[in-house]
Amino acid sequence: MISCANPHAQYLSHQIEIDRAIKRVLESGRYILSEEVKCFEQEFSVFNGSPFAVGVGSGTEALHLALAALSIGSGDEVITVSHTAVATIAAILLVGAKPVLVDIDPNTYTLDPKKLGAAITSRTRAVIPVHLYGQAADLDAIKEITHSKNIKIIEDCAQAHGARSGAARVGTRGDLGCFSFYPTKNLGALGDGGIITCHESSIEKKIRLLREYGWAERYHSHIVGWNSRLDELQAGILRVKLKYLDHDNSKRMALAQIYKDQLSNLDLILPFTKNGNTHVYHLFVLALTQRDKLQKFLASQEIQCGIHYPIPIHQQLAYREKLGVSGRLEITEKIANQILSLPLYPELEFSDVQTVALAIKGFFNET
Ligand SMILES: Cc1ncc(COP(=O)(O)O)c(C=O)c1O
Predict the structure, then answer these.
(1) With 58 labelled, which of 165, 179, 234, 354 sits at a CA distance of 20 to 30 A?
(2) pLDDT of 283-292, one tens digit each?
(3) Ligand 1 probe mutation, 80, 133, 159, 192, most atoms within 8 A of CB
């Protein structure tokens, strides 16, 4: 079986270092918010070029706390997309604000800046562009529209660790950046985790309070807070993996190039990289009308693919009634039926990519 993602393979490729980090934490006797988290926050902020970085419990909580740190809540509107992980929208509802959804660009599948202006009202407090599949949303165009309106930008970087928009890494150009360390992400823990990057020390301090009961010091809550802490074990593991992130992303890019070369003449749409972006291929996503048939065909050849995502959030049972939708989400609804994520992870063999590409060519020859 060629799987779509394989976090176990990544553990095995750094097993000695990861095991050493785990042992170090176990023997330290400190398991929550101690040296490993401190060091990881510092190392991540240097890697990313972000002045501040605060470790939290997950990507969902990173978004939730970022919104709370900006005091966004009831009566406020936050603009984002429907073509994303449900967490992006759940976080907005969790703080009591209203998500307003706009359509995506037909090439990059990220927030379409041309649709942004019409969605802005006097209640709009923030925009959450989602850097989808490993590529930054169009931050230049988004910033141009929000700049003079005192609207904050919270970048959802959960699928784009290390990706660049121009020279800058994602998570540095907006007001805050939110990352997930779910195990299959480009930088993945062996459990849950997340981090928030930001520029302002007042925001950083507020996030540090919010992530631990609002404590300014132990047992002294200065604001109402949550429990959303990155744990020492995950931080120790992430410190090992962070060293290899650029290298792993290069491997993803090399594998993606093979797919692109091999599949270029078929009746399908290949991933598009916007000028000036460095795409780090969290996912390699095709679009084709025969998506379901191809997915079944590949499964019959022991090749596992994914769909990210099959149902836009505004069409899901839990969310239909709660969302504001700006205009028709035509592209979002269309591509949900056409997209297919091929196997891609840094440890995947070049020969496996050739096998997948050959199988796809075989499918088109037969149909
Ligand atoms: C775009 C996006 N945002 C947010 C999240 C939420 O991250 P987590 O699963 O760590 O809560 C994810 C992860 O699935 C994601 O892909």
Answers:
(1) 165
(2) 999 999 999 9
(3) 159
